[in-house]
Amino acid sequence: MTAGGRYASGLLVVAIIGLVAVLTVSPHIRREVAWGIGLALAVQAPLGWWTVRSIGTDRFQLVWVMGMVIRLMLVALAGLVLVPELRWELIATLAAIVATMLVLLVVEVVTVLGKNSEIKAR
């Protein structure tokens, strides 16, 4: 399986797990958890793909740092702007965002481990 296939499969698995999580949490935080997972998937999926595609290139370190800054900005904006403005539960929203991003980072690592054999030494 290609790196793209591994990454897409991982995204699908995480999305399904996220859906199950949304359906099983308490109804009074369901909206926050759903939005948190959705936001994390929307941000992390392209950033992870960008990172995976940059493995073995000269731009990898820059891509990785920029991706981490963007992820941190999502958490900060959600906690400081989105949650207070929409009057959401802070812990439920941020926990959903952070947990989803961490699981998707594991997907990146698994994808990279498979891709690592494809990287040629210079």
Structure, explained:
With 122 residues, the chain is an all-alpha fold. The protein has one domain. It is 83% helix and 0% strand. The mean pLDDT is 91.
Give the topology, please.
Layout: H1 3-24, H2 30-54, H3 60-86, H4 90-116
Structural class: mainly alpha
What is the beta-strand fraction? under 5%
- Please give the domain count: 1
Mean pLDDT: 91
How many strand segments? 0
Q: What is the 3D shape?
A: flat
Largest sheet: none
Specify the oligomeric state. Answer: single chain
Low-pLDDT segments: none
C-alpha end-to-end distance: 24 Å
Rg, alpha carbons? 16 Å
User: Could you spell the SSE succession in H and E letters?
Assistant: HHHH
Contiguous helical run count: 4
Please give the share of residues in helix: over 70%
Brief overview:
This protein is mostly helical. The chain is 83% helix and 0% strand.
Distinctive features:
single chain; 122 residues; mainly alpha; 4 helices
